[in-house]
Amino acid sequence: MQTPTVSQTLSTTLQHRRKRLAELTETPAILWSGGYISRNFPANTFPFRASSHFLYFAGLPLVNAAIRLEAGKLELFMDDAPPEASLWHGEELTRSQIATIIGADRAYPLTELASKTANTVTIAVQDSKTYQQQCQILQRNVPYPQQAKEQDVDLIKAIVTLRLCHDAEAIRELKKSATVAVEAHKAGMRATATAKTEAEVRGAMEGVIFAHNMTTSYNSIVTVHGEVLHNEEYHHALQPEDLILADVGAETSLGWASDITRTWAVSGKFSPTQRDIYNLVLIAHDTCIANMRPGVEYRDIHLLAAKIIAEGLVDLGILKGNPADLVEMDAHALFFPHGIGHILGLDVHDMEDLGDLAGYEPGRTRSDRFGLGYLRLDRPLRSGMVVTIEPGFYQVPAILNNPSFRDRYRGVINWDKLAQFGDVRGIRIEDDVLITETGTEVLTANLPNKLTEIETLVNSRS
Amino acid sequence: MQTPTVSQTLSTTLQHRRKRLAELTETPAILWSGGYISRNFPANTFPFRASSHFLYFAGLPLVNAAIRLEAGKLELFMDDAPPEASLWHGEELTRSQIATIIGADRAYPLTELASKTANTVTIAVQDSKTYQQQCQILQRNVPYPQQAKEQDVDLIKAIVTLRLCHDAEAIRELKKSATVAVEAHKAGMRATATAKTEAEVRGAMEGVIFAHNMTTSYNSIVTVHGEVLHNEEYHHALQPEDLILADVGAETSLGWASDITRTWAVSGKFSPTQRDIYNLVLIAHDTCIANMRPGVEYRDIHLLAAKIIAEGLVDLGILKGNPADLVEMDAHALFFPHGIGHILGLDVHDMEDLGDLAGYEPGRTRSDRFGLGYLRLDRPLRSGMVVTIEPGFYQVPAILNNPSFRDRYRGVINWDKLAQFGDVRGIRIEDDVLITETGTEVLTANLPNKLTEIETLVNSRS
Predict the structure, then answer these.
(1) pLDDT reading at B269 higher than 60
(2) How far apart are CA A253 and CA A210, in angstroms?
(3) Is A362 exposed, middle or buried (0-12, 13-18, 19+ CB in 10 A)?
(4) What separation in angstroms does the CA of B15 have from each of A364, B163, B237?
(5) Binary contact (A213, B225; C-beta < 8 A)
(6) With bands split at pLDDT 50, 70 and 90, how would you rate the model's confidence at B4?
(7) Contact criterion met (CB < 8 Å) for B46 and A52
(8) Would you state the pLDDT for residue B462?
(9) Collapsed DSSP state (helix, strand, coil) of residue B327
(10) Which CATH code is given to the segment(s) A10-164?
């Protein structure tokens, strides 16, 4: 790596993080960064992404490095680039220079790591080759996080405690990421007037992210088929009557994510039916955020969104019955089949590598209810958490054509009425919300979400 | 995968390719596509890239699929998406639909593969998890291509023979890829006037590639430090006196690559010293292409470039001596330390996973000469080959400050003269060249490379 752009407080922050870790667990831990992963041939690699747990304590996306954390001290293990590498990669920072930047207490070549593994714990990385090294150096089968036992679990729980609530350094990075994602979405809206395909809108959006020397935090969704929830294809032509659903986030060079969804009309003007549903989703979104503060259960925010959507669909004549009963029977999930959001940090679904150890309060498990089982976070909100709020409405053929659902909900759906909303395949509105001492701060607030403001942006072209 | 955009002739082409394979080797072969590779957590994956050998015969980037090739027949092995996947991914093509598109002779679920492995050969894929499946299903340690023996080597050699010379379908895809890369470079030049950083130019270029629903064929180089040959950082500010070196290529949705480098002045106007070196590199580039035709040795094209660069540097007073002698002593490589180019196809360095089995004519090996050892291709040119031609001039500190080089070449470098060219850190001009029956067709010819035309484009802004 060449000279990275880091804040002057990075090394102090990292020191604080490892001291807090030491307060939560006494067992020494080794965390690996991971290596380059080959794409179609060895030298053609995917862009490097360091393990998030490593990044949290080491600060920089170092390739093929490890850190050992014990009693608030950080030891860095990495090799200097061989001299001949400078022909291809220029002068790279040495281990000693990196140790200074991140405030490491000691720094060693990688070969030293094997002699410092006694009684250490770790977390398995995603990269298979590095995972094999973990097992080899620790001389044991490192369990994947969801199967972790004993000491490894103590480390995982301690790291979850730390990473759930962000410090000032993390919040600064998350805000940087949000700012760039906001610009990307504005560019996507402005590009729509002249774009002929989903791909053109995506290109305009990701171009902005790369222009800020960031990357995408996940594979972008930019589609006129918002009802396909994880649609990663971009080949459809844009039709004037379509809505574009764009779920695009940025990731800073130090790894921190943003995650924003907006939905807008290709023509620049929502139809009356699109307008009705959009405003319903927006009310759910705004009401959720207005009700968030420390101590509130995120699950209750999800159920609040479900209730508002059920009420709204009753008002529009699409659902029939009492909204509370409809939520109880999961009828909202016919149109809003996912959770209201998730935690956000170094990963867009933060710490999802740990399974529900991060997202679920100890003792809680996933519901088997259709309308609750996809909830990724079930904890009381705490100051310093960043979560997404992303209610939506979709007409998913796999749900609405499912015979057992059609049977189960036959008394509560007005199919004729629903047919009138055929031009609303998928709408989602998603923002990133920091929980503060007293309420919330929306990190993505600079991106309009009111329908008229969205229309103005789309019509402003570039 | 949803419905892919493929030519009507795809299935005929694929049939032709496997028939030709059967003419070269009788042993049945199984080729795996590979799977999704996790980035920071399991569900957050890198964009999928199928193995190039699989793509060559199967045509489509199918995830977790395998094909068995024997006697000109193709059997497809893949599982249909489970019904619940349609909630997240929409309706995906079934195995049977895909079999029709690619003209498979038979199609089976993946579990059937294990019963069809007798006496089969294969090529190891990059993706570690799939590689483990290869070993497990074939019940042997599949060697990496450069260690391959016996039957695996016969398959490799047969595939090299096929993939070295492109058919009409491949050339159409390569041209599509070239066309988009050309547009990306034009966008980068136009964006320079208002860009403040390398990242902004990169964003403009990659935005165009994504807008065409393609991806980059390798990690882009967009830098004011062209002397760092594989520079993948984009954080530098642009200064008016800088040159930008942009090495950016596209990859079509079916996997075919382009690879273009242009160098331009941030200010829109080259300095006299930058102009002198640029024109020298361009003469080398043009002369190489003018001398290419079937039967000509690519190594001689490399040496021709070396000689022209040596002559030019003598004319400019930077080198002293007889150009042929200078090339003989590798003095050209002080400033042009890499090969003149490489083969191009489904991989940007085509078939580089096979090591020099693809790039080097049987019986030939890498030279240990400083000025020849980095040559990636040493074969006679043949009609249907696509190669890059990419001469360059760089002032690489790791070379020019190397005491042993300084000693060895002390008699032939005029350091005072060289110091006058301090504003030329790196210049490269790279195009993609198809060898035809009678000469060449430059696939990237629509992108200007004459200095005045480049200046006009940069000054045209957007």
Answers:
(1) yes
(2) 11
(3) exposed
(4) 55, 15, 51
(5) no
(6) confident
(7) no
(8) 56
(9) helix
(10) 3.40.350.10
CA of A254 to nearest chain B CA: how many angstroms apart? 13
Closest by Cβ to B199, choosing from A45, A199, A210: A210
Is residue A229 within 8 Å of A235, Cβ to Cβ?
no
What local confidence, expressed as pLDDT, does residue B360 receive? 97
Separation between Cα atoms, residue A218 and residue A210, nearest integer Å? 13
| Interchain CB contacts (distance < 8 Å): A and B | 181
Amino acid in position B230:
H
* pLDDT at res. B90: 87
10 Å CB burial of residue A407 (0-12, 13-18, 19+) is exposed
Which residue from B minimizes the CA distance to A231?
B89
Query: CA angle at residue B252 from B42 to A189, to 5 degrees?
Result: 75
Q: Which two tokens stand for residue A264?
A: 């807008």
pLDDT tens for each residue of B162-181: 999 999 999 999 999 999 99
Instruction: Please report where in the chains the tokens 């560019």 appear, as a residue.
Output: A187
Task: Name the residue among A38, A235, A397 with its Cβ closest to that of B5.
Answer: A235
Give the nearest partner residue to A206 out of B44, B206, B397, using CB atoms.
Answer: B206
Helix extents (H) in B369-419: 397-400, 403-408, 415-419
The bridge status of strand B431-435 relative to strand B440-442 is antiparallel
How large is the ipTM? 0.96
Residue B190 with chain A: CB contacts under 8 Å: none
pLDDT tens-digit readout, B418-457: 999 999 999 999 999 999 999 999 999 999 999 999 999 9
Distance of CA B241 to the CA centre of its chain: 30
CATH architecture of A168-459: Alpha-Beta Complex (3.90)
What is the predicted pLDDT for the residue at B2? 67
Q: According to the model, what pLDDT value does residue A2 have? A: 67
B352 and A42 in contact by Cβ < 8 A?
yes
- All CATH 3.90.230.10 domain ranges of chain B, comma separated, are 168-459
Q: Output the CA torsion sign for A92, A94, A100, A103.
A: positive
**The tokens of A303 are what?**
């159920």
Reading phi first (left if > 0) and then psi (alpha if -120 to 50, else beta), residue B295 is in left
> pLDDT digit string (tens) for A402-426?
999 999 999 999 999 999 999 999 9
How many Cα atoms occupy the beta-carbon half-sphere of B220 within 13 Å?
32
Could you tell me the pLDDT band of residue A90, with boundaries at 50, 70 and 90?
confident
Substitution target from B40, B60, B344 for chain A, most A beta carbons within 10 A: B40
Taking all residues of chain B, what is their mean pLDDT, rounded to a whole number? 96
Across A424-452, b (16+ Cβ under 10 Å) vs e yields bbbbbbbbbbbbeeebbeebbeebbbebe
- Please check whether residue A193 is in contact with residue A458, taking contact to mean a CB–CB distance below 8 angstroms: yes
In this complex, the residue of B202, B206, B353 whose CB is nearest that of residue A42 is: B353
C-alpha–C-alpha distance, residues B26 and B339, integer Å = 36
Start-to-end CA span in chain A (Å): 36
CATH 3.40.350.10 domain extents, chain B: 10-164
Cα–Cα distance, A66 to A68 (Å, whole number)? 7
CA distance B139 to B149: 16
